[in-house]
Predict the 3D structure of the following.
Amino acid sequence: MNVRGLSNSAIKTVNADTLVSIQPSSGYTIGSGARQIPSYGTAVSQYANIQELTVEELRLIEGLNIQGTKKTIYTHFLLRAASRPNQTGGDLITFNEQKWLVVKILEQWNEWTKALIVQQVS
């Protein structure tokens, strides 16, 4: 049963899906001064539902010291946040000409992900 699809059909009546570009993190290269430069795989376009954070989600991330504009994203793509064992950063999401970084996975199932994203400064 596609629970995400069922709930999304009801949600879209008040909050339409947005076409996003998802670039999966592929690790990093080392630049001058031993600085890590993130690298990303081929972009995938698909529709996702972007929402503001709930009070409970704000409490959940309260102690993580994540600053900037934050939102949640629901997508059928299995997103990834930073992973030290895999040596990858978070996936990069682009929509409305703005870049957002996946910083925390809030829920993940076989066919969908709910993640915390933070707007990136160009």
Remarks:
- The CA atoms of residues 53 and 99 lie 18 Å apart.
